[in-house]
Amino acid sequence: MEGIGGVGAAPRFLRFPRPVRVVSGTDAVLCCCLTGSPPPTVLWEKDGHQLEASSRLCLQAEGAEHSLLVREAGAPDAGVYVCRAQNSSGEAYAAAALTVQESPDASPDLIPLQGPLPVPSEGPPMFLEGPQSQWVQQGEEVILTCQVGGQPEPAMHWEKDGRLLEDIWESSHFCLTKGLAGHELRIRGVRLPDAGVYVCHASNTHGHTVAAALLQIRPSPETPLSSPHEGQRDSAGQGLPAPKSFWVSEGKHAKFRCYVTGKPEPETEWHWEGHPLSPGRRRLLYRDHDGGFVLKVLYCQPTDCGLYVCAARNTAGHTLSAVQLHVREPRVRFAVPLEDVEGEEHGDAVLECQVPSRGIVTAWYREDQRLLPSPKYEMGEAGVVQRLIIHDLEADDDGIYLCEMRGRVRTVATVAVRGPITRRLPRKLDVLEGENAVLSVEAREAKALGHWTRDGQELPASPRIIQTSSNHTHTLVLVGVTRQDAGVFTFSLGSSHTSARLRVKCVKQVPPGPPVAVELGAGCSNAALLSWKPPVPAPDKAYTYRLERQEVGADTWVQCLTTEAAGAVEVPGDNVPNEGDYRFRLSVVSEQGQSPYVLFPGSVHLVPTPRVQKALQDVCVQEGDDATFSLELSTSVQGTWFLNGMELKAGGPESGSRDEAQGCLVQQEGPQHSLLLRATRLQDSGALITFLCPGVHVSATLHVQEPSVRIVLPREKVSVEAVSPERVVLTCELSRAGAPVHWYKDGLVVEEREGLVQENEGLRRRLVIPAAQPQHGGEFVCKAGEDLAFFTVMIKEPPVRILSPQDKVSVAAESSERVVLRCELSRAGVSVRWYQDGIVVKESEALVLESEGTHCHLILPAAQPQDGGQFVCKAGDDMAVFNVTVTEPPVRIMHPQDEVFLTAKTSERVVLLCQVSQPGALVGWYKNGMEVKVSEDLVLESEGLQHRLVLPSVRLQDAGEFVCSTRDDSAFFTVTVTDPPVRIISPQDTVSIAALSSEPVVLKCELSQAGAPVHWYKDGLEVEESKALVLESEGPHHRLVLPTAQPQDGGEFVCKAGEDSAFFNVTITEPPVRILFPQDELQFRSPSRVELRCEVAPVGARVCWYKDGLEVEASEDLKLGAEGPVRTLTLPHARPQDAGEYVCETRDEAVSFDVRLAESPVQFLLPEVAPSPLSVSPGEHLVLSCELSRASAPVFWSLNGSPVLEDGNLELRSEGPRRMLLIQAVHPSHAGNYTCQAGSNPGAPTLTFPIWVTEPPQVKLVSELTPLTIQEGDDATFRCEVSPPDAELTWFLNGSPVTPSSRVETSQNGPNHTLTLRGCQMSDSGMVTAQTKGAETTARLHVREAELLFLRRLQDVRTEEGQDLCMEVETSRVGGKGVVSWFRGGKPLPDDDRFSAVQDGRVHRLVIRRVVVSDQGIYSCKSHHDRTQARLVVRPEQLKVWHHLEDVVVTEGGSATFQLELSQSGVIGEWARGGVRLEPGRNCQISAQGHNHSLVLSGLGLADTGTVSFTTDSLRCAARLEVTEIPLAIVKGLQDLEVMEGDSATFECELSRSQADLTWDKDGQELSPSPRLRIQALGSRRLLQLRHCISADAGTYSCSVGNAQATTAHLTVRKREVSVLHELKSVRAREGDGATFKCTVSEPGVPGCWQLGGRILRPGGRVRIRQEGNLHSLVLSELQAEDSGEIQFQAGQAKSSTQLEVEALPLQICRKPPREKTVLTGRRAALEVTVSRAGGHVRWLLGGVDLPPGPKYEFRSHGVTHSLIIHNVQPSDEGTYCCQAGEDSANTNLLVESE
């Protein structure tokens, strides 16, 4: 694979140098190709020495190609050359061998070079050439070659898939040779099982290396494995055995494993139903770790059922194994399962299935991954349909998808993604550590260039990583994977990607066994002699012995040593920390784990020898300070301190050479010794401090220095501000007089001169600036010794002012004029900035900046409209504002001046021409108020001043008003498109149609031309299409179809096309309703189910049911049903009152049913069997109960044949069908047989209850209580047995009744009674008594005191000085106060408030507050029965952070404060940001006070985001500084505006930053740009401009941005005072002509309103309204007589009116009825005429007499069409009918014929 280095990429070889063999005296060239970023530096080496360019050696580089040329190579040049490439990101190297052979004409005395290649000096093995991956045909011979260097010569061996070749192959199959070309592995006649990863191992005493190759084999087409169905027999001559059956539930996996052995290794293949299987999405074929061949069928479906056969063969024979797969289908299935889907990469795939019913919850899976709704996976549900849409398909979306219902019922489908990658990677791959991992993909294009990555990173160059490509297949091999190799591997091909997660599993390790024969003996004085023998059996891997010791009585083990050799070791006492008895244990450790410990028998007493652990150091202090000397020994011993040879004791030296009041302090804490010398003096400098103890003699020197000078004032940074030329004095006060100081300015030493003067006065030091100038500003530092004082000096110039202009200046100019903005300052030489709309202007040809003295100019040589805006001249804090407006000259339309009217026929070409006043002017075309769009049917052309709109083939819908509009003018065109009139060809006369209900009815009409619109009417109303009425059209033919006509569908239908009509009379009648199968008289028993049935025709006929003459209604007791032709009346529980006459009636017939019901006899329903004898005791409650079949039936109770009478103790009760006898308290006289008789008839059913009354038995104690003796805290249980079992029993403890509680439990199980006392205490001892009626038993309970043992013992504790600690133990029981005692060093704890003992139940704690070093030692806790102890170790206080740094988020330009609190004061640390140390300065203030440290950073920008840290010698604390953009807010809000109608209104607001999206609203509705509304962004300013304001624009405007609070303002639009300048003039015109009205008002731009006869006129059709400035015009075309009336115009308050008179044209008949028309008797006759205009009045006459409207004659009018309808034509109706329209008339002779 080739790659290109990216930014920050280490060098990588694209092509390694190859070995070169040349003849002596010729040139040799070593070449390689590599890449890296930055470009690497390439060096060549030989025998460890770098090669330099010379006359014989030439180093060349050309792009990524690098070469080494050796001219006239000789024998000394032979050897291994190394190419080394390195850059700032890393290093890479590669080696190649150069072999030099003697020329053929060399001296015969010289022996030719033979044998292996020359190798360098000794070193680890290195592959000069590795084996190459190959793809070969089955049966070919394969040769894998490699060359290796290294000294001594490496040993070589080969592996295949992690196994030695000798272990898996016979020797005849392969051959290993070594020749001039290197080491070769030759495989003869490769077989399919030979495919895999081959690894060559090379090792010598210096190291080990590997090289690998991948061998892939294509099966030979001539020798496939035979199908099992061909009847082959195995080598033993046996046939295929009967297959086993394997059942699996649908949606589950099926796994078959076949284990095959043989020599040579067999070739194995799986078959299904006789067809070879290959790996697929739902079929996996692989070989497991045990060598078995596995076939796994995923998510089994019924289609997977069949016979699966594993076939294997080799040269010795073949064998077969078969299994029959059955798939068990679930009880509930998907109604419609999923289907396989294919989709293109980056497209969508849709999966759909149907569940059995609504409401079933489903879940979607991709294989074993649950899918959730997301932008990637869209899940939907529509009724029973479940849908999954996969958006933006990728290669990894290819796979198996499942939809699952409750009960894990699944449906499965495969999604195949078609893209550059045809076979993707597996989603995960599990590999054992040390095995090889192989990842393979297939691409659609052969030899496509793919790219492999791991976790998004380039794969490193390594011999363990192999990348191969062959045709469509790309393979990645990882040899001997480790845990570090785990991750996500991705193959990329263009924009297509597929990924697999490699998981590396650890191989289970077996730890080694323990050592044996361990012995402990006494060595020399103060030593232990230990001996042992190696474990049996010895571990396979390298191992070591780990020896540990433990002080007797302690709990911790400490490691002593490790060794690799078994035998004997001596452990001296020097290594132990304390004197005591020690024991030892031993274990074996290897890379496979650790063995159990073996304890050496016995112990040894060892004494430590002191050694210096922390040496004594020289001490340097200032005079008057204390000096501390300390050292730490390996053990705790006594020692002596000496000062200049004199022994020191507490209080001072013996000699008195030092003041005894000052004294010294000698301390010892365990192995730590310290000496404190108080208030040191200068004369003590150089003193020798010595410490002596047995075996230790160390010394150190005391150095005393004079105290350093300090700056007393100021302690904080001082800021000084002044105005030039004031005097500035910086003052600093020192700790002592005469000390020198140094002054610095901005890091440079200050030299005294005229502008800077230094003064000294006692402790004060001054730096004086007599006349400060701006250049004197900066940071000044006064340094005295190591102390610093900081001063920040700022010198400002006097503020500059703008003298003119003082007010805002407005400049108006036309396009291309010169505009000059002038500004005069208070002084010259001041920097001036010009801004346009908030943005700094830049000088260019279109904008010139000039400055002359105090005058500054901004010049626009040729201003353009876009140059307009607000210009600001800013000088210091003052500014001048100029508003510049640049306008274009108006664009006028020169032609046409008046409105143009065009009339055209369909398909004609129409051209609208408009000529403007300026070339290049922007022109817009509109039709009916909407901007037109260019298409094939509408073309816009522009040429110079002329603009055209062309309609190539005009259509009817193209008619309307077209407007050509410029910025300032408009032209109007009215286009009228007409079509030739359409006529109805047939029928010419009225058509009558009669049909029966449900029959289809078709009305047909043929027109004169196709495509003409047709309207159908029924009884004068236009029909609407539905299922019951269908309208059809085919060319000129039109049909109205009633598929199943009903009576209500009858009536008069009219087909109207244009001005022509056709009439149809439709009559629909119902068929008669018949009853086919009535029933006769019926008789039933009560209660029972009664059903009355009858069958009607037709099927949908309606019936009514009656009972005894009254219509019945459906209810729970009476149900009416209809199914097809059957009608039913059902009585679910018929009763006698339901009997009677029932009638079923249709429209035409009726049938009756006589229903009679007989009542059934009374029966006992419960109990179902005769009651058994019932035994009761005297006084008990007795209830006898039975249930009857009828609730109203009477019953009679008797006892032994005598009637039972009710009294106060006996009650007879009746509840519905239930009868009861109740006795409150049974008496012996109540015994006997109770009989319940239903009814008084002799044969009535009876029920008998035998009752026995018995006396209760005597209570006895069957078993006695047993005395108990238990230990305190245990449970005590007493048991006894009574008879009878239900006898009551009472428990007593020491004479008091026992009450159940959490500690006392009583229970009963039949006759057995139990008393349990939980957690018995000493006070529970006494007598326990069980008492029942007439008997009792007693036993003694004795509770012994329990031992107080420690369940949780003390543990060693290590803590730090100043901390609180708690030591705790847990006892076996809860004891009283003082049951345990605490000791330190065997003595009671000291009387100190810091020590407190606390008890919490069984837990006892010792709390020590504010631990000091002297608190360490052995602490013990004792009870009367047990003891435990532990060691407390106290470390000196460590520096800690009490209050950590906290993350800070600020906005840019702000300041951030970081504060830190440490546990110690006076700590010196460094502040850093992003790893860079911070120094105090203008924007950085650092301070420290006591424990607190603070850092203040000001003037922050976005680039300052990073990590801020504080570092000392022993700790580091960090926090995150994040600088965010200034919050988006509205800095300057909107202002209320008030404008006149027609003027412009501009709202302006200012934001906190320029980049932001802002939304404008009006009265809550969002605004968008339009020709009248303009939205602008000028830097941080936002403008909303309304042009030509009208009253509707008034309202509340608001702007909002982000989450900032919106700003609002109100716009008020005042109406203009408008008056009429030229009134309307009256117009008189003829019908069909046009009329124009014009009115001139005083104000231009004011909208007007036109009315005709009080009706508001709107543009469109015959009305054209136009406004030009203050001239308003109204054009009415094609006037009609009814248009006559008053014309009114209103603009604002101005009004004008006039009259329009339209002279009507004579009414004429355009289409006349036929001259003669024949009609059948009884039918209807229709005569129709069409007149010249709508609304005209016509008269119908017969014989010169007007016909009156009524039932006989009907007059109709539809626009210009008038009709006469004559109903029920009779012979007397014959005659000549005349239609008169004005002066015109038409006659028709009507003839009547009999049917």
Mind explaining what this structure looks like?
The chain is an all-beta fold. It has 16 domains: 9-189, Immunoglobulins (Immunoglobulin-like), CATH 2.60.40; 224-329, Immunoglobulins (Immunoglobulin-like); 341-417, Sandwich (Immunoglobulin-like); 420-508, Immunoglobulins (Immunoglobulin-like, Sandwich); 535-606, Immunoglobulin-like (Sandwich), CATH 2.60.40; 612-705, Immunoglobulins (Immunoglobulin-like); 723-796, Immunoglobulins (Immunoglobulin-like, Sandwich), CATH 2.60.40; 799-888, Immunoglobulins (Immunoglobulin-like); and more. Helices cover 0% and strands 54% of the residues. Strands 46, 47, 49, 50, 51 and 52 form a 6-stranded antiparallel sheet that branches. Strands 54-62-61-56-57-58 form a 6-stranded mixed sheet, with no helix packed on it. A hairpin with a 2-residue loop joins strand 15 (174-179) and strand 16 (182-187). It starts with 8 loop residues before the first strand and ends with a strand. Keywords: Cytoplasm, Disulfide bond, Golgi apparatus, Immunoglobulin domain, Phosphoprotein, Repeat. One of its GO terms (biological process) is Golgi organization. Its main location: cytoplasm. This is Obscurin-like protein 1.
